[in-house]
Amino acid sequence: MPHATHATSRTTSHELSVITPYRLDLTVSALRRLPTNLVDVYTADGRYLRALGGASGPVVVSVNQPRADALAVTLTGHAADTAPVLACVRRMLGTERDVSDFHRHARQMPWLASLARRMRGLKPPRYPALFEACANAIVFQQVSLHAASAIMRRLILALGTRIEHDGVPLRVFPAAEKFLSADAAMLRAAGLSASKLATLRRAGEAIADGALSESMLEQRSSADAALLLRSIKGIGPWTAAVILLRGLGRLDTFPGNDSGVAANLALIAGEPAEAGPIAEALGPQRGMLYFNLLLARLEARGEIGRASDMTGG
């Protein structure tokens, strides 16, 4: 039986329909990036586990895919959090996103068509909260995927509330307020540079104070939303694009000027290629190129769908 997360917790089961084709393993792999992610957990038996911060306390989410057209979701938490958490799961796992436009454009590029076919069923994942999107985008600025993941792992170990579910340790991603109250020396010890620490604090303060919110960004075009994000010192064009893509699901954005994207693009295309013109040619769902290139990198390392490494979690 799942471990209770609150004195009045209960466990409920739900079925979510998905727009097909849909693959949970691909979508979770794009969400978590690496198996060392302590927040987004994928198990050896094909379950996605996540502890979310509900209004009445933590809620443990367990998701698997019993059929091509549906996800089975189990929630353990307070009854009042059921509806909002289910809505959050739909958003996080892209169950209602139709990305057929991207695939139509991808078929016109032979090198991309092959990759897109292998990744059919990938849907654009989203972080559940704006601060989590900002924190990930800032931490992953200008460092390798593995280095940034190691820093994020140390931050989660230091600040994330620990919950155990079916013997699996889970961590709730810390809210902006928890990060802002954390000791600066501890955050630097986790590997944050002084500039990233300052940017994270500015973003956290803007969110905590209400100067920046998801609704403000939702009401704006992607270009205007990017300008609002860039008004925070330390958030440049790449970081703003990642926040919009991974945090708000804006597929009309593509994080250019990324060395990792360029390397992955050259690997898949078979020759150096400029990401900007390719992204533009892919139309309004060009952001799917970012996720497909990420999965190509993970595929080469055998990390798609690999069970999470919870050592030390």
Structural features:
313 residues; alpha+beta; TATA-Binding Protein; Endonuclease III, domain 1; five-stranded antiparallel sheet; two-stranded antiparallel ribbon; 15 helices; 7 strands
How would you describe the overall organization of this protein?
There is one protein chain. This protein is α+β, with helices and mostly antiparallel strands and 313 residues long. The protein contains 15 helices and seven strands. The strands form two sheets. Strands 1-5-4-3-2 form a five-stranded antiparallel beta sheet, covered by helices on one side. α5 runs antiparallel to α9 (194-209), α5 (130-139) crosses α12 (237-248) and α13 crosses α15. It starts with 9 loop residues before the first strand and ends in a 13-residue tail after the last helix. Residues 1-6 have low confidence and may be disordered.
Distance between the termini: 21 Å
Element pattern in H and E: EHEEEEHHHHHEEHHHHHHHHH
Number of separate structural domains: 2
Number of helices: 15
Structural class: alpha+beta
State the helicity in percent bands. 40-55%
Average predicted local confidence, pLDDT: 93
The radius of gyration is 19 Å
Shape: globular
Number of strands: 7
Give the full name of the CATH homologous superfamily of the largest domain.
Hypothetical protein, domain 2
Q: List low-confidence stretches.
A: 1-6
CATH fold node name of the largest domain: Endonuclease III, domain 1
In short:
With 313 residues, this protein is α+β, with helices and mostly antiparallel strands.
